[in-house]
Structure formats: structure tokens, C-alpha cells
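Exam revision sheet. Question 4 asks you to relate a sequence to its structure. Input first:
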Amino acid sequence: MRDALRDESLSGYAVMFADVLPASFLREIDPTVRNRHFGCLPVFWAWFAQIVEGNSSCSKAVGLLQSWCRSQGLPVPSSDTSSYCKGRQRLDEPFLEAIGARIDADLSSRTPVSELWNGMTVKAIDGSSAKLADAEANQKDFPQPSGQKPGCGFPVMSVAGIINLSHGGWEAMTTGPGTEHDLSMARRMLDHVGKNDLLLGDRMYCSYRFFAETRQRGAHLLTRLHQAREVKLDWRKGRKISPHERLVTWTRPAFSAARGTMDREEWESLPESIKVRLIRLGFEDRTGRRRTMTVATTLTDAERHDGIELHALYARRWEIELRLRDIKTTLGFEMINAKTPEMARKTMTMIRIAYNLMRVLMQRAAREAESPVATMSFKGTLDLATSIHESFRNLSGKPRKRASQIRFLIELLATRVVDPRPGRREPRVIKQRPKPFPLLTAPRHEYIEIPHRSNYRACA
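Answer key, C-alpha cells:
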């Protein structure tokens, strides 16, 4: 009975994704020595459920484990969450990395040629941040912003990632303190770009070193021109390709420009110069005003890669902003309630795994709907998957019934298509008024609150 329990991993999600993460594969990488309630596989699927069900509590995850054990006729574990939390800590990086790699391979193998751009895989890179629980260990590795008083803020963890726009899955994620520069974090992920990859980035990634290191890996880069270069830009220099395109040569800056992030030998290993193509065209910003934007790319062959198409392609960089919103807003991870840096990083790994499994469903639904995967709704997929997963629980070992249920799920997901809304504006404003609570201006144990009618004032 316990072997069957481990195979099913106590979850309808395990059966739903059995063709991506089969029980035989999970058993092979499972580091658990003996079967138990809080072994790696039960804890993995319970944690997965926590993530996709709106960043729910550990108490809810234990409740799921209790329900699953009851349905299998096994002893029901205690409601104390400590054993479950220790189980999450036992999930080591090799175990999670193996699962992540398996999902990435599935997404890549099912990507149709139609999702490529001129035979190239388009990827995007960007960074964001998340608040962590105000614990001493978190404050040490991810200190709160310097402008906040001690005890009145939260640790801030920077997060950077590379997303594959061909299927929408995250290929890499890395973390660092809130003060770390995006470029420094980006270089740790360059192993995830290679030949026939086209990487999109905002103007933050428009640096000589990043351009050179990307080309050394066989990939190409398309970014917005950095404002410091745009101020000094002389459109008369370089070779004219068209009225809105120039081919210029960037030379390697002096070694002092590296600012101690690499030694002289590494710096001199970069090429002395690189050819960069600049494309300047008009566009309409979010306020409806006409403006001019210059993009820079290492795709210098104007005959193979049309400049207007490249300029339009850069607009797809915004998709990574939407995917970050999926994680922070839709999944509810504006704040990660982890009390140690290790668990904060592990949570980001689990978020990437859970997100990519949802993209597996979206990719198959897109094929069913004969639509690009970018038109599928992540929120719609998430809602349907969390609503229907219980129906998969009793389908383990019943391949025909499971296949029928999967077809039903994909057919429903194929109807969750996002309507095209060109030119739509969504100002970042709040309609609902917040309650009139004051800000915390002193550590909580020192703060004295004095209520007065409907308003509050405080003295410390």
C-alpha cells in the first residue's frame, strides 16, 4: 500500500502530469531512503499544490496530505506543520533540478517550428524582486532597502530569469540581494543561451560586456539602446543600411570599466570590437504619444533579418513582464514567507517548476486550439487545473480513463483563449481605498498605537 502511495504521490496532480513526470522517473531520482508520510514525493506534490493554489499555507498542505492518507487507508499524520516543513527542507537541489530539466525537455520537444522566429528561438531576460519574511537570516543575505528603519521593513530578494517565448516556460532563474545589479545576475544564466537563440532585453542589458559574452556563446542579442549611449549617438557615424538603420562598431572600454567584476585576463579575452546594428523607428507609448526608440542588435545581416521586423519583435520583450506578473500577482508571490535564504531560493525553484508544468498544459491546449501558445490564458489554465485535479486521483494505473480525462481537460483549456486587445491601456491605479492604518515607523514591539475614533495616531 505504501508503494502505491508513493507512486501516486498522494495527489491528482501527480496523475495529471504522469506523462511528463512518470512515477518510474520520480522513483529513480527520489532520495528518500524509506517510505513515509513526509517523504520527498508526497512533500513535492503537496508543495506544488501550495503554489498553484494561490501560495496557500503549510497548514493547508498538511490538510491535503491528511486527506490523501485517509483516502488510501493509511494512518493520518498530525496536524502539526513542523514535519511537513522539515520535509520541504529535505528536498535537495539535485532532486528539483532533475525535475525542472525533465519539464524543460518536454516543453522544448513539443515546440512547433511555427513558434520560432526565422528559425531562431526567441528568449527574453528580465529581473524583479520579492519580499521575504522579516527574519534575521533573511536580513543578512537579502537586506531591506537602506531607506527603511530597522524593524520596519522586509528583506528584499532580487530575482532574474530567462523565459523561452516559443513555449512560455522559464528556462532559468537566479536570485541575489536587492542591491545586486541585473547584469551581474544575468551573467549567471548565460549558460542557458546558445546557438540559434535570440535574447531580448531592456536597455539595462545594453552593455559591451553582455553583448560580447552573448556572442561568445553563439547567441544573438536585441535590446533597447541604453540612454547613456543614446544621448551621445551621432546618426551620421557608421555605415548606412537604410534611413532608419546604421551599422556601427563598438570598441572594448578600458579595463577600469569592469569595476572589479572580472580580472584583467577575463576582460582582455573579450573581443576588441563588435559590430552592432542600430534601428531607430517611431512607436506609440502607453499614453498614446508618438515617440522614437532605438534598438541595438548583433543581427547585422539586413538581407536576412529585416529591420522593421526586428523592431516589431522587440515589443515581445513585454511578455516577460506579463509572466512575472503571473508569478507575483496571479500565484500570489509578491511576498515569500520563507524564514531562511535557503528556503527562499528553493521556493523560487519550486515556483519555476510549477509554472512550467502549467505551461505544458497551455502548450497542448494551443495545439488543440490551433493558436499560438501566447494567446492561451495562464489564469484560465490555473483555475481549471486546480478545479479538476481531484478527478485524476483515482485514475492511476488506468491509462485509458486517464487519457480520456486528459483529452477532456485539454479541450476545455483550448477554449481559454485571451481575446486580442490592441492598444488597450491599464493605468496602474487603485480603485479600492485602503483602510486608514498608519505605517509602521518603529519595530513592532516598540510601537504604541493610540486609537481615536476612525483615525489612528501613534507615539513611540
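Marking note for examiners. The radius of gyration is 25 Å.
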